[in-house]
Amino acid sequence: MNVSINISARHPDACPALVLNADYRPLSYFPLSLWSWQDAIKAVFMDRVNIVSEYDQVVRSPSFEMKLPSVVSLKAFVSHERSPAFTRFNLFLRDKFTCQYCGSGADLTFDHVIPRSKGGKTTWENVVTACAGCNLKKGGQMPEKCHMHPAIKARRPDMNQLHRHGRGFPPNYLHESWQDYLYWDSELEP
């Protein structure tokens, strides 16, 4: 059965739903765990989520009417991996999107502290975020030779650390109904 939905007031694409785990913490802070209004409604009808808060925005069909969910919580807890995958994004998040040599946030890449040409591996413990200029300047040299040492010791983060760092980068849009579930820190621990 194909049902068309009539929507009043503002466009529903401007009404994403914040997705919380069953413990009422966001699944992710950066990127913030959001679902489109369609995915949120589908999850409600499939009985996978609880509606925690709603927009004033209403969707209607010939057989029902409901407010769009602004915050939903999963009914089943989703366990986070203890050890995050080694990805460029997770590396940048661990290093707070700053070059570990000069502090710049522009033109980011990554650097092997012990160069691969000298036996360095591509691991959490040997790779740091670097801007293109510092990466080029350091080249294939050891840190002692070029007098370039990372600001932090490179190490494997856990998911809690990545979530803490992610809270340091609030999104451009925050609906007031989300405020009780999001915590944006001005000072973050390493």
Give a written overview of the molecule.
This protein is an alpha+beta fold. Helices cover 18% and strands 21% of the residues. It contains five helices and seven strands. The protein has helices spanning 37-45, 88-94, 132-138, 143-146, 159-166; strands at 6-7, 17-20, 34-35, 49-60, 65-74, 108-112, 127-131. It has a five-stranded mixed beta sheet with strand order 1-4-5-2-3. Strand 4 (49-60) and strand 5 form a beta hairpin. The protein is elongated and about 70 Å long.
Give a brief description.
The protein has about 190 residues and is an alpha+beta fold. About 20% of the residues lie in helices and about 20% in strands. The model is unreliable at about 1-10 and about 185-190 (pLDDT under 50).
User: What is the CA-atom radius of gyration, in angstroms?
Assistant: 22 Å
Structural class of the secondary structure composition? alpha+beta
| Residues in β-strands, percent | 15-25%
Distance between the first and last residues' Cα: 53 Å
Q: What is the typical, i.e. mean, pLDDT?
A: 87
Oligomer: single chain
Outline the low-pLDDT stretches. Answer: 1-9, 185-190
- Side by side, the strands of the main sheet go 1-4-5-2-3
- Please report the total strand number as a whole number: 7
Number of helical regions: 5
Helix content: 10-25%
What is the H/E order?
A: EEEHEEHEEHHH
